[in-house]
Amino acid sequence: MILKDIWLDIKAVQERDPAARSALEVFLLYQGVHALIWHRFAHWFYCHKMFFIARLISQIARFFTLIEIHPGAKLGHGILIDHGCGVVIGETAEVGDNCTIYQGVTLGGVGTKKGKRHPTLGNNVMVGAGAKILGAFEVGDNCSIAANAVLLKPLEDNVTAVGIPARPIKKDGVSIPKEKKHVSLEEYEELKQEVEDLKRRLCELEKKE
What we know:
The chain is of the alpha/beta class. It has helices spanning 2-16, 23-29, 31-47, 51-65, 185-208; strands spanning 68-69, 74-75, 80-82, 88-89, 94-95, 100-102, 106-108, 120-121, 126-127, 132-134, 138-139, 144-145, 150-151, 159-162, 167-171, 174-175.
């Protein structure tokens, strides 16, 4: 099973990275693949409750690849970690099949309580460079999170999200109109008072002239 997942990860790089020339080159030279290989062995030890060995393997992988994947994280197959320097994937994070993760991505947790505290990514999710996904919620299949976005809420399938905090801008390839901000009565009265104050000052200046 581990060898099959490793092969699928190599094929994912060949299919989705135009710079990849051969399976041998990917296997020997791509640190994202190396991090996934180390992780799959570390996760096996983690599942068999050999936590120290699992964490030791993950720390060795972090030293050589600059990619930190906790051995408890559950990763699908066909994952591409492209230019993976700075990627951090937490203990209870889950990543579906055929996902693409770029450099500087964090799948992080919030709070200090034990249990599920990291995000779950569906299949075919793309996470742009520098994006942060923080919290124990689900990101649906075929979603795209833009570079440097900070996602704090779940996403439905086929959604594109951008910004800080991230908000959906497309669903099924169709743009989502921005929500119109409703002005409260208090805000309206404050604006009205400011306008009146400005008018009064303008009149005073005109009289002085």
